[in-house]
Amino acid sequence: MKKSAFLGTLTAATISAGFAAAGTLDDVKAAGELKCGVSTGLVGFAAADANGVWNGFDVAVCRAVAAAVLGDGSKVKFVPTTGKTRFTALASGEVDVLARNTTWTFSRDVDLKFEFVGVNYYDGQGFMVPNALGVSSAKELDGATVCIQTGTTTELNLADFFRANNISYEPVPIETNAEAQAQYLSGACDVYTTDASGLAATRATFENPADHSVLPEIVSKEPLGPLVRHGDNQWGDIVRWTLNALITAEELGVTSANVAKSSMEAGGNPEVNRLLGTEGDLGAMLGLDKDWASRAIAVSGNYGEIFEKNIGEKTAIGIARGLNAAWTDGGLIYSPPFR
Amino acid sequence: MADLSFVRTELVPQKTPPASEVGVIGWMRANLFSSIGNSILTLLTLYCIYLVLASILPWAISPTWGAASLTECRGILHELGREGHFSGACWGVIRDRWTQLLFGFYPSELYWRPILAFILLGVALAPVLFDGVTKKLLLLTAVYPFLCFWLIWGGSIWLPISIILGFVFAIVIYGIVSKATSTLLGAIVAIVTPIIWWLFLAAPFGNLMQSFIPLGIEAVQSDKIGGFMLAILIGLTGIFLSLPMGIVLALGRQSDLPILKGVCVAFIEFIRGVPLITLLFVASTLLNYFLPPGTSFDLVLRVMIMVTLFAAAYMAEVVRGGLAALPKGQYEAADSLGLDYWQAQRLIIMPQALKISIPGIVSTFIGLFKDTTLVGIVGLLDPLALSTNIRADMAWNGILWELYGFIALIFFIFCFAMSRYSMYLERKLATGH
């Protein structure tokens, strides 16, 4: 008890000093590592392998930022956060950036005082049913039992959808995705609903994935993206433009294979030159050096490469680009120009 | 007429007992089929056991140890003609990740450190737990907590040494001051001095010594610690700190000093009134808001403190139960012998009260150890949270029971060992006959 009393006084003495401390960029540089909040484990987005090395679609964002700021994509301290602790971890400074499949919503952006720097994955809630059920549209699910994770926005979206279509359902509340998988396979529920990316990942683990299908209805918008704290605009800009650099790189055809060569000297495309720092000095405006973007791209490739490697159609998860295709291919992935 | 009288001159050789009374058959007759009702029960039970085993064993016996992914497991089972959702376990995940489940992300070249700490734990505990072990080992027991933390977290050896020095100062100063003036003053000074030392001087002293004589091992960050190592660390810290804290709280609750009593009662009731999860959230989120950004002091440490406080409150009530069970005559007997309060507690009251409370204490320990899985909620990678992480690897996504089974087995080993020890202790201390 003495210790907590001491910590209390320490807190009171230093709390103001703490908030007035240097910007996040300086903190990260001083620490020599980027503290990145990730999921405790989500297929394709964040997972540690047998050697404890983190990989995934969200993890790639962390590594790109670390490479841009610190020059090394491995200088990341991954802080596993749960759905319940992620926002406090970011608000309290335990992490510098949160890249944890977090949906960009009004209240999180405005009320919780975070800055979503962009969208790296457009997700939406979908439904998975066994083919044996003979259902081809979610509107035919009248009276179905639905496995649903409690305490998430999916629960509310589901209620909205069924009420809007004036059909009934019976929820089977479950806690984790693994539990949902077991319940769904054992037939405890007719339908499993969660984000479409999660459905794809779940379906890929089934013994006979072809026996199950994801219904065409997507009943919610879930734009997932990395976020930072309000108030440190320079740091927000760095994370935002690192993500944009990955997106622009795909658009301009800069890949992990050719980025080293292209950043040696200025090429024919002025935007590529500005992106890779062979022309102009965009890096200095961010408080970084000229090669920041080329390092970020070199870690795990451009946006398209990251997508293909972690969740794309060649992986077991097999998610098509869909909404997440570059805007030039009819998707929503679009970056403001590097100018 | 022939003389038919017969006098036996030697004993009849002993016959072996009838086959129905000895050996397997005898045992079964006595224990399993002693009556019709018991026979029916026996057969029913055997049938139930058969049902359970018949559904688990074909699944569990599965030649998938070498598989590198769930798909590969299914391939192996498919070749054997075993199809379906529960056709066989996929043990490859355990082979691939068992070290991770045990050690978390601890660097594999440093595994010897937690293993050594664990072995030393056995050595350090031996003189406390069992008779007939040389009491010289108690020195190791005293140093062990610091040694353990140093082995696991690494870093400079001067930090634990400077913390130990605080205790040494306390003992020395108590000796000097209490001889020179009064015991009370000695006790006060002996408490204040090490606190000042730890707060202000221990860290600079450690750094200074480190700069003169650099001695240390590679430091390991807390976020590398996970799996059963984390569960055991939190569990053991909670167990060993909560018992003394619980005893003090229980005594405080029975004390005649109103302020002391009030503080103890308030603490116990407050902690017992909130669930452990709430305390863990306080540790992980609320403390963060109070501490200045960037100076986050270790989450593992915060959680350990909360778990210890939680266990201490429960322990206090268990010990109070033991105290309440003692007849009043024991207290009066101690008083009549002229023992002062602490002598009475040490020699008469506590040995009996603690003996009565052993089952309760061990239950609390076991519960505490199992509760360590709750820390997954605040983002620490306890075994269960690690199983989620392992499933997030596409190779192993979809595996459920193999991981849970492995984790359950290890928890069972620890909890069963604790329970057995408590029964041994009860037998050893039984003086009621």
Q: What's the layout of helices and strands?
A:
The complex is a heterodimer of chains A (339) and B (433).
Chain A: H1 2-19, H2 24-31, E1 34-39, E2 47-48, E3 54-55, H3 57-70, E4 76-81, H4 86-91, E5 97-98, H5 106-110, E6 114-116, E7 121-123, E8 125-130, E9 144-149, H6 153-164, E10 169-174, H7 177-185, E11 191-195, H8 196-204, E12 212-214, E13 222-224, E14 227-229, H9 233-252, H10 259-262, H11 270-276, H12 282-286, H13 292-300, H14 303-310
Parallel strand pairs in A: 1-4, 1-5, 9-10, 9-11
Antiparallel strand pairs in A: 2-3, 6-14, 7-13, 8-11, 8-12
Chain B: H1 23-31, H2 36-60, H3 70-79, H4 92-103, H5 112-129, H6 138-153, E1 155-156, H7 158-180, H8 183-212, E2 216-217, H9 227-253, H10 258-273, H11 276-290, H12 299-325, H13 328-336, H14 341-371, H15 383-391, H16 401-429
Antiparallel strand pairs in B: 1-2
Structural overview:
Chain A is an alpha/beta fold and 339 residues long. Chain A has 14 helices and 14 strands. Chain A folds into 2 domains: 23-122 and 224-302, Periplasmic binding protein-like II (D-Maltodextrin-Binding Protein, domain 2, 3-Layer(aba) Sandwich), CATH 3.40.190.10; 125-220, 3-Layer(aba) Sandwich (D-Maltodextrin-Binding Protein, domain 2). In chain A, strands 10-9-11-8-12 form a 5-stranded mixed sheet. In chain A, β2 and β3 (54-55) form a beta hairpin. In chain A, α3 (57-70) packs across α9 (233-252), α3 (57-70) packs antiparallel against α13 (292-300) and α9 (233-252) packs across α13. The longest helix of chain A is centred in the last third of the chain and has 20 residues, at 233-252. Chain A is globular and about 60 Å long. The N and C termini of chain A lie far apart (57 Å). Mean pLDDT of chain A is 88; it is low at 1-21. Chain B has 433 residues and is mainly α. The radius of gyration of chain B is 29 Å and the shape is globular. The longest helix of chain B has 31 residues, at 341-371. Chain B is built from 16 helices and 2 strands. Chain B has 3 domains: 36-90, no CATH class; 96-106 and 223-402 and 409-429, MetI-like (MetI-like fold); 155-217, no CATH class. In chain B, α4 packs across α15, α6 (138-153) runs antiparallel to α7 (158-180) and α9 (227-253) crosses α12 (299-325). Chains A and B meet through α1, β2, β4, α4 and α7 of A and α3, α4, α11 and α15 of B.
